[in-house]
């Protein structure tokens, strides 16, 4: 039996209060305490880390992210080093990361009680920025690390290396380094392939490259991707999971590698990636 359940709702979603009440009522019947991040601030605008989650490793056995993929991604970064598994409850649109939908909420929660679930591991990215050989930024992400131009900038150039070998000097709108989990995100929109999230690899996809070809490159999970900003007169930004950002400067060195932590994801027997892909993307 669980010692406690953590809930992280996106309070901006419609009907989220009703869903939270249903979850609380369900676990109350089993005398399992539920800890909830309050609605004082919108989830995605809270400073990191979320204060209410600091003591969760001692209080809860799992975390339920109630919202969409954005909510799940935020929770994944917050609990990255806690080993707590995450269950996604989709109140959004696509919801690739969600393990359950509202329509089968109670039956899925019952499977948690019955132990009828699986815990998989998703690789994460570790991104650092070196400026004049000094680290000025360091963080983790589940989906991707994106280097892109500002809204009024022209083409930017990004010198990209795999370990110590030059891959390409990409002229264009930017570059996406994604995990397999992030392959169904921005990378897919930029022309990248869909990758099974259980795999271990890094995916490099250029954004609108000013080249005669546009191809993603898949590299080994242990490779180090280094990107050097080779444009001096443009606004360029690093964004992690579409939520955490940092302004870049000329000659900044962005290093992206597999993180030492993973995201532990709760899934059920019917949560087949290829079925989800068909239902949410191919048959959209």
Features:
284 residues, alpha+beta, Rossmann fold, Tumour Suppressor Smad4, 2 domains, 6 helices, 17 strands, 39% strand
TL;DR?
The protein has helices spanning 16-28, 56-59, 69-78, 105-114, 186-189, 273-282, and strands spanning 5-9, 34-36, 62-67, 86-90, 100-101, 118-131, 134-141, 144-149, 156-162, 165-172, 174-178, 201-207, 217-220, 225-229, 236-240, 244-248, 253-267. With 284 residues, the protein is an alpha+beta fold. Strand 3, helix 3 (69-78) and strand 4 (86-90) form a beta-alpha-beta unit.
Would you mind describing this structure in some detail?
This protein is of the alpha+beta class. The protein folds into two domains: 5-117 and 268-282, 3-Layer(aba) Sandwich (Rossmann fold), CATH 3.40.50.10330; 125-260, Probable inorganic polyphosphate/atp-NAD kinase, domain 2 (Tumour Suppressor Smad4), CATH 2.60.200. It is 18% helix and 39% strand. It is built from six helices and 17 strands. The chain has helices at 16-28, 56-59, 69-78, 105-114, 186-189, 273-282, and strands at 5-9, 34-36, 62-67, 86-90, 100-101, 118-131, 134-141, 144-149, 156-162, 165-172, 174-178, 201-207, 217-220, 225-229, 236-240, 244-248, 253-267. The strands form three sheets. A six-stranded antiparallel sheet has the order 7-6-17-14-9-10. The longest helix has 13 residues, at 16-28. It is elongated and about 60 Å long. The model has no long low-confidence stretch (mean pLDDT 90).
